[in-house]
Specification:
With about 60 residues, the protein is mainly α. The protein has three helices and no strands.
Length: about 60
């Protein structure tokens, strides 16, 4: 990924948080972004704890060895 480009996950997280800030319901944000309501709640909760650092996501463990 080149500098200045967002991955799909980062874009969805950022968009979801902006929509929540604008007063959109969790269910509406989830439907718009094609994710579950639980996912949107996780984003919101992580943002409350980690602020903008949460946009970068957490590294996933690889099952490849």
């Amino acid at each position: 990924m080149r500098k200045g480009q967002l991955g799909v996950g980062q874009f969805k997280r950022a968009t979801g948080l902006l929509e929540l800030d604008r007063g959109k319901a969790i269910s509406a944000v989830a439907t718009t972004l094609g994710v579950s309501e639980t996912t949107v709640r996780v984003w919101r909760n992580r943002y409350e704890q980690e602020e903008l650092q949460m946009l970068h996501g957490k590294p996933r463990l690889s099952s490849r060895r």
